[in-house]
Amino acid sequence: MAITFNVEKLADIRTPFYYYDTNILRQTLDAIKTETQKYPNYFVHYAVKANANMKVLKIINEAGLGIDCVSGGEIEQVLAAGFPADKIVFAGVGKSDWEIELGLDKDIFCFNVESIPELEVINEIAAAKGKTATVCFRINPNVGAHTHANITTGLAENKFGIAMEDMEKFILLAKTLKNIQFKGLHFHIGSQILEMDDFAALANRINELQDKLEAAGLPIEIINVGGGLGIDYDNPQENPIPDFASYFATYNKLLKLRPNQTVHFELGRSVVGQCGALITKVNYVKEGSHKKFVIVDAGFTDLIRPALYDAHHKTINLCSDAEEETYDVVGPICESSDVFAKGIQLSKTKRGDLIAMLSAGAYGEIMASGYNCRRLPIGYMSDEL
Ligand code: LLP
Q1: Three-class DSSP category at 369
Q2: Is the distance from the beta carbon of residue 46 to the nearest atom of ligand 1 less than 6 Å?
Q3: Alpha helices in 106-166 (DSSP H)
Q4: Helix/strand/coil percent split, the chain, to 5
Q5: pLDDT average, residue stretch 198-204
Q6: Alpha-carbon span 110 to 130, nearest angstrom
Q7: Which residues contact 77 (CB under 8 A, 6 or more apart)?
Q8: Contact 313, 279 (CB under 8 A)
């Protein structure tokens, strides 16, 4: 079922705003549950960086997913939403002391550690508290992903993780630290990945690393493969549910597990991307010398993905089914990058029409800013309208 809009109800809300279709979100969560039930040692932690809207989080928590945080603020937000602390994985290349303290105080499931200095600080802070921190090492697997360069993370040139050649040495060091319990390995190769071969390459690399560790007498319990499953930005209405079946089946087919190992996933975009849309109103339709511009009241402060990554969000006019014309859709901000789409087909558009930018549930509302002293967009759930 495609995302649906009740235009009469949406028309009463001040624009721009985010709209979340709870049916799509629940169907997505059901699909994840159906697939992961096949593999009892698989655990999905929702990557809250994609969308931390409290109402969205509550639905995800009700579905029983764990959670992946990258800041103390995210830990506070997910605890407020009701997620149990023992389902929190905490990643991030530069954790501050207060964030480590918070994770320890709340007894989170696992810290994903990215460097030796970080490991030493966690050990010190844990010792001062008389606690033991459970840690996984984030390993940079040097596996490329077919996605935008700004959202590729698993190459040796990226800032993330520990180099493979240092892995054994670092694990041996971790084992000497009294307040650290080393449990396993963490990976993440990038985001918006649609080619299962990329995940297959990661699974094969993990197998190699596991064999090496086993030979060195260093078994692991936890394998965290990160997130990255992409969504269909081109045909969101025809294809609202990501291909979870192929995704989990790829790991199940290739990843060689030892007894009692658990596999953890950190899915963000694929969980929330398709349930959300940015709704904006047309302020003006301007006829330039060569082009027609639809000037909307949303700007890159509301949805930065087009300006930052050249991302394309399917854009539809909710108030017109007249014949299509060609437009550039632009925002009101005084920067030339404040452009949502160029040369797209929209039903003939006039001042006051509501425009929906689809597939905006992930990395939309959460990346909004107050530049130009603009108000932050509010998120509304379909079942509260
Ligand atoms: N785990 C780690 C360690 C990550 O860095 C990320 C995303 C995820 C999990 C979740 O990845 P997902 O399943 O959502 O692909 N703002 C960008 C995306 C940045 C992704 C950052 N890391 C965008 O709008 O495309």
Answers
A1: coil
A2: no
A3: 116-129
A4: 35, 25, 40
A5: 97
A6: 17
A7: 48, 52, 54, 57
A8: no
Q: What is the pLDDT of residue 151?
A: 57
Residue 328: count other Cβ atoms within 10 Å of its Cβ.
18
Atom of ligand 1 nearest to the CA of 190: 15
pLDDT attached to residue 147:
65
Which atom, in ligand 1's list, is nearest to the CA of 193? 15
Residue 161 confidence class, pLDDT cut points 50, 70, 90: confident
The reported pLDDT for the residue numbered 148 is: 63
Whole-number Å distance between alpha carbons of 318 and 28:
24
Cβ atoms 374, 59 nearer than 8 A: no
Contact 380, 21 (CB under 8 A): no
Question: How far apart are alpha carbons 363 and 306 in whole angstroms?
Answer: 11
Taking the CA of residue 47 as reference, the ligand 1 atom at the shortest distance is 10
- Of 231, 250, 183, 168, the residue nearest 362 (C-alpha): 231
Q: Which residue has its alpha carbon closest to ligand 1 atom 19?
A: 151
Atom of ligand 1 nearest to the CA of 304: 24
Q: What is the mean pLDDT of residues 214-219?
A: 96
Output the CA 189–ligand 1 centroid distance in Å: 9
Cβ of residue 91 lying under 6 Å from some atom of ligand 1: yes
Would you give the distance in Å from CA 262 to the centre of its chain? 21
Distance in angstroms between the alpha carbons of the first and the last residue of the chain: 19
Contact present, 85 and 108 (Cβ < 8 Å) = yes
Q: Which atom of ligand 1 is nearest to the CA of 363?
A: 24
Ligand 1 centroid, distance to 211 Cα (angstroms): 28
**Residue written as token pair 């240092």:** 166
Note if the bond before 40 is cis, omega within 30 degrees.
no
Who's near 236: CB < 8 A, 6+ residues apart? Answer: 2, 3, 274, 314, 358, 359
Residue 269: CB within 6 Å of ligand 1? Answer: yes
Instruction: Please enumerate in sequence order all residues whose Cβ is within 8 A of that of 176, keeping only pairs 6 or more positions apart, or say none.
Output: none
Cβ(266) – ligand 1 distance below 6 Å: yes
Element (H, E) at 138: strand 133-140
Q: Give, for ligand 1, the residue of 147, 191, 274 to mutate: max count of ligand atoms closer than 8 Å to Cβ.
A: 191
Of 266, 278, 357, 365, the residue with max ligand 1 atoms within 8 A of its CB, to mutate for a pocket test, comes to 266
Indicate the DSSP class of residue 332: S
